[in-house]
Design goal:
Helix content: 10-25%
Number of helices: 2
Structural class: mainly beta
Largest sheet: 7 strands, mixed
Strand order of the largest sheet: 1-2-6-5-4-3-7
Length: 137
Amino acid sequence: MGYKSDNPIPGHPLVFSTKDVLGNEVVFYSQTWHQHILLGDHAVMSPYQSLIEPCIIDPTAIRKSTESALALVFENAVHNLPPEDLLRVIVKYATGTFMTGSSTGFVMTAFPVDSATYPNPKIGPIVYLKPSKTGGR
């Protein structure tokens, strides 16, 4: 599955602009939401637009993309998100300095994980794992 929202048009209305957990500025264009996610491969996301920004701000994990050296795959565990309670958001960055928080990026796509439909996702190794909360006495 290739990325279809590779070149959003700047100037289109934004759904949001935020900082990812690494410190990069990330934008989500309404064009991507309407033309790629809802009308494209991921219409099941319709009631879940509000889950995309938190996935970028506070992901469970971030993986490398195998489709683009300038993209990361954000993952977040989401209770009651069918079918597997896991959301993936792919962000493409302007430069390769994204791991230091000094780039800008845009949301390319977002979708719930479905291993039955996509048994071999095009994602690489984990590059960020959310620190676990340790309980004290």
